[in-house]
Design a protein that fits this description.
With 188 residues, the chain is α+β, with helices and mostly antiparallel strands. The protein contains five helices and ten strands. The radius of gyration is 18 Å and the shape is globular.
């Protein structure tokens, strides 16, 4: 099949726009100076620095918790990529669920993530993935990337939000190419 000149130009435009998007996000790194504390796999007292393990790069998946079917969908997909991701970076899945709830869903879904609880959401809010409206905390899905320098300072390098149709869940772009698109698809 020949790809038309118009489609070829659109592919090039899409790649160039993505490159500009990533460059714009990465052009505004932020130093992390606050000492955040988390629960990791149920154990209290973990710090952001400890989440790096033996790597200098870290991906934090901001997850809304077990009540969000879409967040579960993204975690299911990323779980399959974990061996590839962890060959390059540390990665954790963070939400506000209790350690028991986190362990339960990880067991049910066969997730291999390090599960991190940001109970008071201070980190999640500071990263822009939670806010309070009408006295209620609202978390948003996405991820942040961090780099730990030789002097142990930590820099937030980038971030992006998850949502239906994004580039991080292949289900959506693949469904777009079906005759009726995603139709009434809802994750289970």
């Amino acid at each position: 099949m020949n790809i038309s000149t118009e489609l070829s130009a659109l592919y090039d435009e899409q790649r160039a726009l993505r490159e500009r998007f990533v460059k714009a996000i990465r052009s505004t790194p932020a130093n992390i100076t606050k000492d955040y504390e988390f629960e990791v796999n149920g154990a209290k007292g973990a710090t952001l620095a400890s989440l790096f393990g033996d790597k200098n790069d870290l991906i934090v998946i901001h997850n809304m918790g077990r009540g969000c079917k879409y967040c579960t969908l993204w975690a299911d997909g990323l779980n399959g990529l974990l061996p590839h991701l962890t060959s390059r970076t540390s990665i954790v899945l963070m939400n506000g669920d209790s350690p028991d709830q986190q362990a339960d869903i990880a067991r049910q879904r066969n997730w291999n993530f390090t599960m991190v609880r940001d109970a008071d959401a201070s980190f999640t809010k500071d990263m822009g993935f939670a806010s309070e409206h009408d006295g209620k905390l609202h978390r948003m899905p996405g991820y942040s990337t961090f780099y730990r320098h030789e002097d142990d300072s930590i820099e937030r390098v980038g971030f992006d939000f998850f949502g239906p149709g994004d580039v991080y869940m292949p289900v959506f772009p693949m469904f777009e190419m079906l005759k009726n698109g995603a139709a009434d698809f809802r994750p289970e």
